[in-house]
Amino acid sequence: MMQPDSLRYVHCLKVLKQSPLFGGLEDIVLRDMLRIFHYETYIKGETAISPEQASDSLYIIISGRAKVSVYNPDSGREHILFLLGPGDGFDLISLLDGDWHDAVATALDDMEILSTTVQKAREWLNQHPDFNRAFLPYLGRQMHGLANQVADLSLYDTEARLARLILRHLVPDKLPQAVSLINDLSQETIASMIGSVRVVVTRHLSKWKQKKVISSRHGHWTLLDLQALLEKAEQ
Questions:
Q1: Does domain 7-152 have CATH number 1.10.357.10?
Q2: Exposure of 51 by Cβ count < 10 A (0-12 exposed, 13-18 middle, 19+ buried)?
Q3: Domain 157-233: assigned CATH number
């Protein structure tokens, strides 16, 4: 357990206050929550959370990003279901059903994580039912994201799926529009998010750069022509 007067504790509390999942809770409630969590770190590329761990524990990201993926062991292919960042929780559905889920969380950056057992998390939820006001909409947004993926894979070609992925990660009210969360990811990772392969993603991105739809500098993307990308998203 972290000491309340430590810099690490203060840092974690600040991240939780800025999180869409926990930001609406009073300070005293967040401090009570931190009491049951433990601090962990993972290095980039490491499997942070396996299906076995997720069925027994609840995880909250403090810094860094993780990809949540499912794998086909026969083909070795991966499909990325979610990208998670600071303030996000992993496999929160386990709080509701307690089932084993096949998804694996892998660190895309060096990460800081808070963890606690599902049992302790449920006890905390029973003591603080106000958390449900943020918890249920948060789960709803994740389910909506999965529904969008299914629709994209069923209804759109690869170029349109790539365009729709970028549009979902634009930074609001910032022109030229920067792209958040998926910045500096490998093109292989991007391909795994849209059900494609790296060479196809590379071809589309190169074409868009030539047509000045997007620009890229040191792995960070900027959208230059919103209307053009919107049109590609509906092809």
A1: no
A2: middle
A3: 1.10.10.10
Q: What is the DSSP string of 15-75?
A: HHHH-TTTTTS-HHHHHHHHTT-EEEEE-TTSEEE-HHHHHHEEEEEEES-EEEEEE-TTT
Rounded Cα distance between 158 and 213, Å, is: 17
Tokens (6 digits) for 101: 């889920």
- pLDDT tens, position by position, 61-86: 999 999 999 888 888 888 998 899 99
Angstrom distances, CA of residue 178 to CA of 83, 144, 191, 221, 222: 17, 23, 20, 6, 5
Residues in the chain: 235
**What predicted TM-score, i.e. pTM, was given to this entire model?**
0.83
Q: Which two tokens stand for residue 14?
A: 């600040």
Beta strands 57-63; 78-84: pairing state = unpaired
Give the C-alpha distances (Å, rounded to integers) separating 98 from 33, 54, 57, 145. 20, 9, 10, 22
Q: What is the pLDDT of residues 189-228, one digit of tens each?
A: 999 999 999 999 999 999 999 999 998 877 778 888 989 9
